[in-house]
Design brief:
The protein has 424 residues and is an alpha/beta fold. Helices cover 31% and strands 26% of the residues. Helix 1 packs parallel to helix 7 (190-201), helix 4 runs parallel beside helix 6 and helix 8 runs parallel beside helix 12. Bound molecules: uridine-diphosphate-N-acetylglucosamine.
Length: 424
């Protein structure tokens, strides 16, 4: 029932700090399952997806306690091996418990994720990789039942595509397998490196995370550890685009600028001034952005999770350009909402052809997913008049205090109870 209302046209300037990375924190929480005892994870964002993962772990018999931005996860007594459909349907990343459960307990029963608003999001590579490690997989009644009564064996595995989720599940399973696993065409995202360093702190032997070849030498057991989550590069990128749309200078702090190299280079090509520091970046833009072509690719390419925010920026840039989405087949759904705000965007298969307009006009719009929701708010910041972005719960899945942080930069934005039920 809640929406975000933005009155556009304000100059944005100031400082904003980002939280720990959602996509890392969720996987570290799953990995904590692998060591009996209490692991401590700090710099955990206060967002809805973390609440869901905590619920998934609690359902497995794990105790999760939270104070401020820290989590203590006591995985001494696992009493269930099931991630039920209600949880997986709420958050696909719940499937990250598959690898840890099967490696520690020898069994897992995880609901199959269905399609979602950004594409079909298959799980075949997770399954094939686990089978190569000696796991028996039976699919039935909407569940993946995985068992490895005699333990897992290291294997040479090559992924068809550098999938983030498959790399993580296979990596976590391999850590407790017998012998060496070599994973080729692995995803290289910074969150994979963060997961590998967490596993190494737990006693695992992992080499090459962050490169396309990860080598794991299995160990017999892991121990709990303490780890700080890396800063959220997507949250950071979102505020940098807000800074570009609102003029800036906006200083975004709390993340490693190298994790956003491609995004920063595109901001520069669009005419922004980008000042990199060790722990953050300041962005400013005088006048209108220039159009730049973008194609999303696995890291270190341009992140698909920043595609929507860039479309909001390019919709009012000078010139014409093409955004090509190579990672998720259905991630342009929100473009129609931008068109309702006056953008000139045509979708041809996985290409968006954008002719920049000089001004967007505020309108009621709906956010189909997390990043698109944030992008529509950004578009509202630059639009004439009032934009109401419905279905705010999508944004709360991944952004902590989103409205408050934008208010801190000078945005005229607030939360309202809307008449339309969320999700209607
Ligand atoms: C993760 C991120 C998400 C990000 C994405 C790509 C989390 C919680 N989510 O999602 O924010 O946008 O990486 O950077 O970390 N695929 C298959 N078979 C598989 C696995 C994936 O065909 O077994 C396909 C997917 O349908 C998709 C592509 O590979 O088209 C990339 O997916 P993947 O990298 O696995 O993304 P996620 O881990 O789901």
């Amino acid at each position: 029932m809640r929406s975000i209302v933005v009155r556009g046209g304000k100059r944005l300037a100031g400082r904003v700090s980002v939280e720990g990375a959602k996509n890392s924190a969720l996987k570290l929480m799953a990995a904590a399952l692998m060591a009996p005892g209490t692991s401590r994870i700090t710099n955990v964002p206060d967002i809805a997806d973390v609440d869901i993962m905590a619920e998934v772990l609690t359902g497995l018999g794990v105790t999760v306690s939270r104070s401020d931005h820290s989590l203590e996860i006591d995985a001494s007594g696992i009493t269930s091996v099931e991630a039920p459909y209600e949880m997986v349907a709420k958050m696909r990343a719940s499937t990250a418990v598959l690898g840890p459960l099967v490696s520690r307990i020898g069994e897992a029963n995880v609901a199959m994720p269905g399609g979602c608003n950004i594409g079909s999001r298959k799980i075949d590579m997770h399954i094939r990789g686990l089978e190569q490690l000696g796991v028996d997989i039976v699919l039935g009644h909407g569940y993946i039942h995985a068992s490895a009564k005699d333990g897992l064996r290291g294997a040479d595995i090559t992924l068809d595509f550098p999938s983030v989720g498959a790399t993580e599940n296979i990596l976590m399973a391999a850590v407790l397998a017998e012998g060496r696993t070599t994973l080729e065409n692995a995803a290289r995202e910074p969150e994979i490196q963060d997961l590998a360093s967490f596993l190494v702190s737990m006693g695992a032997s992992v080499d090459g995370a962050g490169t396309p070849v990860i080598v794991v030498d299995g160990v017999e057991a892991l121990h709990p550890c303490e780890h700080r989550v890396i800063g959220d590069r997507v949250e950071a990128g979102t505020y940098l685009v807000a800074g570009a749309l609102g003029g800036g200078p906006v200083a975004v702090e709390g993340f490693d600028p190298h994790h956003l190299d491609m995004v920063l280079s595109k901001l520069e090509q669009a005419g922004c001034t980008v000042d990199r520091r060790a722990d953050g970046v300041t962005v400013a833009l005088d006048g209108r952005a220039q159009c730049v072509d973008i194609q999303t690719l696995p890291y270190p390419g341009f992140p698909t999770d920043m595609q929507a925010q860039f479309m909001a920026l390019l919709a009012i840039a000078d010139g014409s350009c093409v955004i090509t989405e190579n990672v998720f087949e259905n991630r342009f759904m929100f473009a129609d909402e931008l068109v309702r705000m006056g953008a000139d965007i045509r979708i041809e298969s996985h290409h968006a052809l954008i002719k920049g307009v000089s001004q967007l006009s505020g309108a009621p719009v709906r956010s189909p997913d997390l990043r698109a929701g944030a992008a529509l708010v950004l578009a509202g910041l630059a639009a004439d008049g009032e934009t109401e972005v419905g279905e705010m719960h999508h944004i709360e899945r991944g952004y902590e205090r989103f409205v408050e942080k934008l208010v801190g930069l000078g945005a005229d934005i607030s939360v309202v109870e809307s008449d339309t039920p969320e999700g209607a």
